[in-house]
């Protein structure tokens, strides 16, 4: 009997030891700050999501190497939204309810951010998109969304910048607009480009539309060619743009082709071909030709980490992560509400894409650049300050 009691006591002590070890393990596991990343790692715009996540990972790696925040390390929890709005909503819900993140970075595409916005609002979790440019992300029905932020410029700003470039630098009097009617991003840019171009005294001579995943654009390009505009504005993503540019040039359309930051991908040149992209221009967030030491240092660090030069999405991901890291540091808390308040108070934060301040609409005040493609290579054309 005595022997049995001793055996039971030993078992109980072993169980207590295991429980104590388990508690210690949980404590160690929770001694970090979980940040969610909701991005397009597969699907139609996977190139954007993958580049953006690379930039985010580098920023977090550097922050952790510098000691983390409040003595804690940052942990990035990544979810793939498969380039679909419904999957983006699911990913946001998972990151909040299951992974218990204190904030979310992403998604990349405006339509996927919009699908996640109300979920973040309802759960009072800050969501910061590094690349979503649709104005409704931060302001819906005339009201600022408390928990939504961005670290990139907006469609109204980007559309206006390109309209001014077309008028002032290219001396364009007429324009055709070719819109992806399945994309909120493309429709928003088209609307704002048209408003600014007409205000500048220009005339829109043709407006055409296509859908994502279309392959043959010749019918609508024929109408554009007949309209004979001075320039053609194509605010869309590289997958379709590359085919449009290639087919436009094959059909004899020689006018300057203008676009947006969605053009920025190595695959644009791979599909369209270097020659077809001559006399094309697009708005972007930074240029690798910028001689600013901070830009060149980042490029070198990114190359060392990934073996390739960063595109604009990688830079924006890096800057978006740094913006959130800065807010958590200033909040000195992992409370999502305090992080949200700190994000709203961001002012004169030095990032790779320039100095950033957050305005009353939770949008950044920052610069933009015009990139020209020459024989397949991006060249810096102009820098436009806000």
From TrEMBL:
Pfam families xrefs: Peripla_BP_6 (PF13458)
- The reply to whether Translocase figures as a keyword in the UniProt entry is no
PROSITE patterns cross-referenced by the UniProt entry: PROKAR_LIPOPROTEIN
Q: Which UniProt keywords apply?
A: Amino-acid transport, Signal, Transport
Q: Give the GO biological process terms.
A: amino acid transport
Q: Where is the signal peptide?
A: 1-20
State what protein this is by name: Leucine-binding protein domain-containing protein
Q: Which organism is it from?
A: Lucifera butyrica
């Amino acid at each position: 009997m005595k022997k049995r009691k001793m055996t039971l006591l030993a078992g109980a002590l072993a169980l207590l030891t295991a429980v104590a070890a388990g508690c210690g393990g949980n404590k160690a596991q929770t001694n970090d700050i979980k940040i969610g990343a909701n991005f397009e790692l597969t699907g139609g715009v996977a190139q954007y999501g993958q580049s953006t996540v690379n930039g985010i990972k580098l920023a977090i790696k550097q922050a952790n190497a510098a000691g983390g925040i409040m003595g804690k390390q940052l942990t990035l929890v990544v979810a793939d939204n498969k380039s679909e709005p419904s999957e983006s909503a699911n990913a946001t819900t998972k990151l909040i309810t299951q992974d218990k993140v204190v904030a979310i970075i992403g998604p990349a595409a405006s339509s996927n951010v919009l699908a996640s916005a109300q979920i973040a609002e309802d759960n009072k979790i800050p969501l910061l998109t590094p690349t979503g440019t649709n104005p409704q992300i931060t302001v819906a029905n005339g009201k600022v969304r408390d928990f939504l932020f961005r670290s990139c410029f907006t469609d109204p700003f980007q559309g206006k910048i390109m309209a001014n470039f077309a008028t002032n630098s290219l001396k364009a009097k007429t324009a055709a607009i070719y819109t992806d009617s399945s994309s909120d991003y493309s429709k928003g840019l088209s609307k704002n480009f048209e408003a600014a171009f007409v205000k500048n005294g220009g005339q829109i001579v043709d407006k055409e539309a296509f859908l994502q995943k279309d392959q043959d654009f010749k019918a609508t390009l024929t109408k554009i060619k007949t309209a004979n505009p001075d320039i053609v504005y194509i605010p869309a993503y590289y997958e379709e743009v590359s085919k449009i540019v290639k087919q436009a040039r094959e059909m004899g359309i020689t006018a300057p082709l203008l676009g947006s930051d969605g053009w920025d991908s190595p695959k644009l040149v791979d599909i369209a071909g270097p020659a077809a992209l001559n006399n094309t221009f697009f708005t972007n967030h930074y240029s690798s030709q910028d001689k600013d030491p901070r830009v060149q240092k980042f490029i070198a660090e990114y190359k060392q980490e990934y073996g390739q030069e960063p595109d604009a999405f990688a830079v924006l991901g890096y800057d978006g992560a740094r913006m959130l890291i800065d807010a958590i540091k200033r909040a000195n808390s992992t409370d999502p509400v305090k992080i949200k308040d700190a994000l709203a108070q961001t002012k004169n934060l030095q990032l790779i894409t320039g100095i950033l301040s957050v305005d009353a609409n939770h949008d950044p005040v920052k610069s933009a650049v015009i990139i020209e493609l020459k024989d397949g290579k991006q060249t810096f054309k102009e820098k436009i300050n806000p």
